[in-house]
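Is this the right way to post structure tokens for a design question? Let me know if I should format differently. Anyway, here goes:
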């Protein structure tokens, strides 16, 4: 039976990415060597890295605008540290918007480097919305936000105007929707949410914001050194970078970000319409802040969880159990998830209602 993979990460990838990466493990570029055993300095892999970095800037419409794309390691969690190391001046300060677990973790790291102002937070409401009214201090060295909150199912629909550099963690919605990416001075994203295999982290950075902190930065944490080494300062995650390249190529062939945004909106509309219509379910995120990538919802009657779980598992659905912070269910609809899979989940929800609605009301 076909599996409908809603995993929050590592994520679903296009079928052709699985096939091409599997072939590369056996025989990469007809070299009779595996992708897993070639030198990262070999001509074949250097070409992979160069094309991947170029495609990133092309798809984000940042070519020729002073940006560099890097493939690093350590996930978004290491970027929580690298960002203040590279952007917060000694005796400086930074401003953060607290919209979820990962934003909160980024704040903890920044506090190790200097004054860290939380401009707004939805923590007291279990991060069920994106704060809309806040002031960003003009004397901060940078402003940090998280575009999509995987655990809580919220997504920033607009971004503030600010005179200071803006940093954004886009780990779970990178390449999913059209934005003016030039409004950001630094973007980072763990690959495993929407872009490729776990093991590498994309960083897109405007070079002019670097070298201003007065800090002595350890080499492995210094963006400037990684730029100079063209993402080869240390041995890169070869397989993960290659799967990112394949996914970026797939995305370009789909028509790029504008085309995939339409698909993502269609998927989100189908699922959220059913959540709102169906008497057995309720969404957890504020309607205006709902994420197109991660839909979170609960059963109106938690006692029916076992019955619903049996139904969606029987339908070949995988990975919709909600995070422990929210409970219930989380359907992650990343770029490669087909509309067909969303319809399967919706059909199960409809069937569940038809079977249990009356019983639930009687209870």
């Amino acid at each position: 039976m076909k599996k409908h993979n809603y995993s929050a990460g590592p994520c679903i990838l296009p079928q052709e990415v699985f096939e091409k990466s599997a072939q590369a493990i056996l025989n990469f570029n007809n070299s009779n060597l595996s992708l897993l055993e070639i030198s990262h300095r070999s001509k074949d892999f250097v070409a992979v890295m160069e094309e991947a970095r170029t495609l990133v800037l092309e798809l984000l419409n940042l070519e020729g605008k002073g940006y560099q794309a890097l493939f690093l390691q350590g996930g978004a969690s290491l970027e929580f540290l690298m960002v203040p190391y590279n952007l917060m001046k000694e005796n400086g300060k930074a401003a953060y918007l607290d919209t979820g677990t990962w934003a909160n973790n980024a704040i903890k790291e920044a506090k190790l480097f200097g004054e860290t102002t939380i401009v707004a937070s939805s923590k007291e409401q279990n991060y069920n919305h994106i704060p809309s009214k806040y002031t960003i201090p003009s004397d901060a060295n940078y402003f940090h936000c998280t575009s999509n909150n995987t655990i809580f199912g919220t997504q920033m629909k607009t971004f503030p105007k600010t005179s200071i550099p803006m940093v954004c963690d886009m780990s779970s919605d990178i390449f999913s929707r059209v934005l003016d990416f030039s409004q950001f001075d630094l973007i980072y994203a763990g690959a495993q949410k929407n872009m490729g295999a776990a093991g590498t982290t994309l960083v897109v950075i405007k070079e002019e914001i670097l070298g201003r902190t007065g800090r002595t930065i350890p080499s492995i944490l210094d963006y400037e050194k990684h730029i100079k080494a063209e993402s080869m300062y240390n041995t890169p995650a070869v397989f993960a970078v290659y799967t990112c390249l394949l996914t970026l190529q797939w995305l370009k062939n789909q028509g790029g970000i504008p085309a995939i945004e339409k698909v993502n909106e269609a998927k989100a509309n189908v699922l959220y319409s059913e959540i709102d219509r169906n008497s057995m379910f309720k969404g957890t995120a504020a309607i205006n802040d709902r994420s197109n990538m991660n839909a979170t919802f609960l059963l109106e009657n938690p006692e029916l969880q076992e019955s619903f779980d049996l139904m969606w598992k029987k339908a070949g659905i995988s990975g919709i159990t909600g995070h422990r912070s929210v409970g219930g269910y989380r359907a992650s609809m990343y770029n490669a998830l087909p509309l067909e899979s969303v319809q399967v989940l919706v059909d199960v929800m409809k069937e569940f209602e038809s079977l249990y609605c009356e019983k639930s009301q009687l209870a």
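Format looks fine. Someone answered above. Worth noting: Residues 43 and 49 are 10 Å apart (CA to CA). The mean pLDDT is 96.
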